[in-house]
Each structure stands twice: as structure tokens, then as C-alpha cells.
């Protein structure tokens, strides 16, 4: 939590702590209030107001989905109070967005636009830049992933070009769970502008355990490393069947689970295998459905 003073901010908090929603809430509150009072200036009525930038396309898709619940909740509460109905729209524009959908976003921009650094650059160099003239809040997620890189330098340039379009510079909010040098990332985020670093003490007390998939490693005739192309889940003589079973047990035991692997390919294989195992269990015991 930090004071709502419209300052540039770098928010450092663990994954799953709610920092993304916290970054959105103040801006969302403003949009709902203005929507009810119809006080928006003319140059803001046909533009996006909140710009969310993620270096990871999949994360942007998750945020688009996760915003639906709070948006609906706020709208329902306003309706319950008899206040003017306001429906905020969320749009997503990445390299995967079809040309027809991009044209729709340009003709009728959403209140909240989710994009990537590269797509932002392309928007700023086309007529789509007109849809950004009313942006007031820029949220940059996983900011540590771009700070200090060529991709980050490119994004920094795009942010300055965006500010040059605006009547008033947009508030920048950077989000990260892992920042080694907060001062360096804050400097990247704000340039020559002051940035407030919000780094609350961790309230969680992690329980760390080292778990061996089998009681006796000698029970496995040959152990696959899990990092090479030959390490297929379910392979005969592999330790992976034990690992997969253990992971599935943990997933079913908890509401949410994050599994880290050594590569994207392994993550895809493991996901497919977990789906297969779950389907098999579900067939045997329908009561475990989640």
C-alpha cells in the first residue's frame, strides 16, 4: 500500500501479493468517477486512459482476464448504489493481434489497453498514436526484465515519445517481484523524474523444503536430468514419473501452484503430462474435480 499522490512509483512485492491490482485501482477509481460525472475532457473521450505494458505476452493475457472480476465488482456496487452505470473496456494489442482487431482498437480504443514494448512502438509510429493522447497512467509490469537491456532502452524511448503526445505527462508505475538494484530500475523508469520506491517488508514466512521424489534413488535404474531433448516425461527408467506424480499431488492440494522448470520446452512437456495424469485420475475418481 502507498499514498495515492500520482507520483511515479516502483513497486517491489512478491508474486501473488496483489501489486498489479493495486497499481490499477487508483486509476480505475478515477475512470469510474469520471464516467459517472461525464467530466472527461474532449481529447480523452476517444482514447485509452490506462496503458499496461508487459514484456511477456502471456502475462498481458492473464491481466486482461484477471481485471474482469474487479471491474464487474465495482460496476455492480455502483449499480447497487443507484449510481450512473459505467462499463470500462479492456483491449489487448500485441504482435499476435489480427489486423482487423487492431483496426477496431484504433477506431474505438478501450479504456484500458494492454500491450508490449514493441507494439507500443508501432502504435506511436502510426495513426494509432492518436488513441494514446489521453493516457494518464502507464503500468510497466516485470520492469526488471527490460531495465538495463536494449529492449529496455527501446521502451524508454517509446515512453518519452508517449509523453510528448500528452497534455500532461502520464504517471508511470513499474512492478517487479525481483529487483536487485531498486535505484537503477527507478532511474530507468522515471528518467530524470523522481520515482517513489515502494518496497514493503515481506509479510509471508516461506516454508522451504528439499524433497526427494523417491525414498531411495537406487530404485530408479537410470535418472534423466530433465534438461535435454532426450528427457521425456514418462520415459522408462526415468525419475520423471515420480516427479510428475508429486507435482500433481501438490497442485490438487493447494488453490494455486507455480512450477519452475529449466526451459520452456520442458514446461510444455510437463504441462501436457500433468494434464494427462489428471485426466486419468479424474476418470478413476470423478470426485477430485477442481
- Rounded mean pLDDT is 85
Physical arrangement of strands within the biggest beta sheet: 3-4-2-5-6-1-7
Order of helices and strands, N to C? EHEHEHEHEHEHEHH
> How many angstroms separate the termini?
32 Å
**Share of helical residues:** 40-55%
3D architecture notes:
- The structure is a single chain.
- This protein is globular.
- Helix 1 crosses helix 2.
- The longest helix has 24 residues, at 57-80.
- It contains eight helices and seven strands, in the order βαβαβαβαβαβαβαα.
- The two termini are 32 Å apart.
- The chain has a seven-stranded parallel sheet, sandwiched between helices.
- The chain folds into two domains: 8-198, P-loop containing nucleotide triphosphate hydrolases (Rossmann fold), CATH 3.40.50; 217-288, no CATH class.
- The model is unreliable at 222-234 (pLDDT under 50).
- The protein is 41% helix and 11% strand.
- The chain is an alpha/beta fold.
- It has helices at 19-37, 57-80, 99-107, 117-124, 150-165, 182-190, 240-253, 264-284, and strands spanning 8-12, 50-53, 90-93, 112-115, 137-140, 171-176, 195-198.
What's the helix and strand layout?
Layout: E1 8-12, H1 19-37, E2 50-53, H2 57-80, E3 90-93, H3 99-107, E4 112-115, H4 117-124, E5 137-140, H5 150-165, E6 171-176, H6 182-190, E7 195-198, H7 240-253, H8 264-284
Parallel strand pairs: 1-6, 1-7, 2-4, 2-5, 3-4, 5-6
